[in-house]
């Protein structure tokens, strides 16, 4: 019986090696196929497509350039492994351990990665389109310029990850943790980030056009010159965030918490801020023309030189706000609270005072 098993192993080894672009260490291949354990092995550029390596020990193994399309690596241990340019399309790596793995350029389109541990992995330029990354641990991973279009990252942890320049168009990031993550120049257009946590994250120059961020947390985040046009931020918490020069054109910020935010020079043309809490915010030079600020709380806000032309400020609280040099032509201030408001040099003030 043992002789028969070894004959099968040797036969399979010959098949795998014959189809390899460059033969890996033959003894290491035999070891893997016979024991499902091959730590520190050289399996580079081997063809193991469709193979079953569930629970395999491949710690620190070299699988760079290997063909593992459709392979079963569920619960496998690939910690510190080399997977540069490895093909894992459609592979199953659910609950696999890829901690600190080197994975630059890895191709994992449509792979099953739910619950996998990628903590500290180097995944620059990784191709992860359509992957299932639900509940995955991606903390401190390098995903610079990675492609994650249409990926499912529900409840994944990307804390302190580097996603600069990454493409996450149409991705699902519901409840995803992105605290302190680097998202500069990333593309999140049309993605879903409901209930996501982006506290202290850097989103500067990123594209969030048409993104759903309902009830998301962005406390202390940086959104300098970020494109947030047509974004749904209803009930989101942006307190103390830096939103200077960001584009919020036609965004929905209804009931958003925005106390002490920096919106200097931001564009909020046509934005909805109904019942938004914008206490002590800095809106110096911001463009709020045609915005809806009905019942918004702007107490103590600095709106110096802001453009509020044709804005709706019905029932808005502007007590102690600074509206000096603000453009208020055509603005609606029905029943607005303007007690102790600074209206020095505000334009068209004489026409507005009759509204309240």
CATH class of the domain at 1-84: Mainly Beta
Task: Average the pLDDT over all residues and give the rounded result.
Answer: 93
The third-level CATH topology of the domain at 1-84 is Pectate Lyase C-like
User: What is the count of helical runs?
Assistant: 3
Strand content: under 5%
Topology as H/E string? HHH
State the oligomer. Answer: single chain
Question: What gap, in angstroms, lies between the N and C termini?
Answer: 95 Å
**Which segments are poorly predicted (pLDDT under 50) over 5 or more consecutive residues?**
1-21, 349-356
* Structural category: little secondary structure
Portion in helices: under 10%
Would you give an account of this structure?
- The chain is low in regular secondary structure and 356 residues long.
- It has a domain at 1-84: Pectate Lyase C-like.
- The chain has 3 helices and no strands.
- α1 packs across α2.
- The longest helix is centred in the first third of the chain and has 17 residues, at 2-18.
- It starts with a helix and ends with a helix.
- Pfam families: Pentapeptide.
- Keywords: Signal.
- It comes from Floridaenema aerugineum BLCC-F46.
- Residues 1-23 form the signal peptide.
- This is Pentapeptide repeat-containing protein.
């Amino acid at each position: 019986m043992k002789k028969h098993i070894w004959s099968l192993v040797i036969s399979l080894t010959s098949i795998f090696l014959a189809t390899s672009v460059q033969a890996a260490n033959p003894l290491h291949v035999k070891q893997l196929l016979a024991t499902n354990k091959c730590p520190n092995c050289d399996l580079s550029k081997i063809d193991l497509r469709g193979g079953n390596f569930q629970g395999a020990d491949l710690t620190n193994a070299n699988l760079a350039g290997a063909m593992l399309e459709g392979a079963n690596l569920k619960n496998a241990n690939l910690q510190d492994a080399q997977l540069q340019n490895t093909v894992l399309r459609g592979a199953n790596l659910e609950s696999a351990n890829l901690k600190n793995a080197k994975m630059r350029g890895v191709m994992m389109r449509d792979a099953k990665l739910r619950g996998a541990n990628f903590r500290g992995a180097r995944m620059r330029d990784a191709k992860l389109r359509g992957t299932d990354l639900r509940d995955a641990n991606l903390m401190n991973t390098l995903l610079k310029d990675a492609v994650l279009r249409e990926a499912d990252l529900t409840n994944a942890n990307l804390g302190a990850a580097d996603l600069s320049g990454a493409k996450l168009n149409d991705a699902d990031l519901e409840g995803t943790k992105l605290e302190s993550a680097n998202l500069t120049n990333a593309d999140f257009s049309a993605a879903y980030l409901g209930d996501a946590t982006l506290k202290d994250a850097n989103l500067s120059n990123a594209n969030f056009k048409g993104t759903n961020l309902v009830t998301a947390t962005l406390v202390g985040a940086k959104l300098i010159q970020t494109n947030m046009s047509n974004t749904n931020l209803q009930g989101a918490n942006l307190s103390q965030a830096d939103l200077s020069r960001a584009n919020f054109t036609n965004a929905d910020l209804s009931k958003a918490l925005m106390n002490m935010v920096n919106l200097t020079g931001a564009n909020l043309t046509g934005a909805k801020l109904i019942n938004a809490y914008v206490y002590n915010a800095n809106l110096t030079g911001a463009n709020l023309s045609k915005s809806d600020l009905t019942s918004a709380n702007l107490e103590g806000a600095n709106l110096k030189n802001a453009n509020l032309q044709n804005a709706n400020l019905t029932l808005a609280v502007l007590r102690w706000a600074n509206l000096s040099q603000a453009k208020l032509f055509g603005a609606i201030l029905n029943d607005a609270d303007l007690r102790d408001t600074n209206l020095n040099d505000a334009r068209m003030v004489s026409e507005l005072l009759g509204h309240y």
